[in-house]
Amino acid sequence: QLVESGGGLVQPGGSLRLSCEPSGFTRSWDSYGIAWFRQAPEKEKEGVACISPSGGSTVYADSVQGRFTISRANAKKTVYLQMNSLKPDDTGIYYCAAGYFRYGLGPNQYDTWGQGTQVTVSS
After folding, report:
1. I want to staple 110 with a disulfide (CB 3.0 to 4.6 A). Which of 5, 19, 80, 97 is the partner?
2. Which DSSP string corresponds to 21-72?
3. DSSP labels for 58-122?
4. Whole-angstrom distance, CA of residue 16 vs CA of residue 19
5. Which H/E stretch holds residue 10?
6. 3-state SS assignment for residue 13
7. Residue 108's CB: how many other CB atoms inside 10 A?
């Protein structure tokens, strides 16, 4: 189980920071690759960013490159998604997902998901 937080309503150009924390993991948190996905109404789930278990490697979708930053603090067992210069097209439910030594933006690589947090970008 994963728990996301930090979503909300923000104006275009604004910023939000999402957090993802584990609940009940039996393996070490730093053995899991973590990814953020989002899903807008009537659209498919889209991989936004991912980070390797060590935190040394990251990948971003073209649509968020240069605006979003994924990071992790393994000692705190938390992964963050810093979102800057937000656009209305960034609106959706944001999910974090974990996979044991997994890494990439494909949803099938991850077997543990959170319930999601709503992000709405609107004036």
Report:
1. 97
2. EESS--S-GGGEEEEEEEE-TTS--EEEEEE-TTS--EEE-TTTTTTEEEEE
3. EEE-TTTTTTEEEEEEGGGTEEEEEE-S--GGG-EEEEEEEEET--SS-GGG--EEB--EEEEE-
4. 10
5. strand 8-10
6. coil
7. 8
Token pair listed for 81: 């998604």
| Exposure class string for 9-31: b at 16+ Cβ within 10 A, else e | ebeeeeebebbbbbeebeeebee
Q: What is the pLDDT along the chain (123 residues), one digit of tens a residue?
A: 899 999 999 999 999 999 999 987 777 888 999 999 999 989 999 999 999 999 899 999 999 999 999 999 988 899 999 999 999 999 999 999 999 999 899 999 999 999 999 999 999
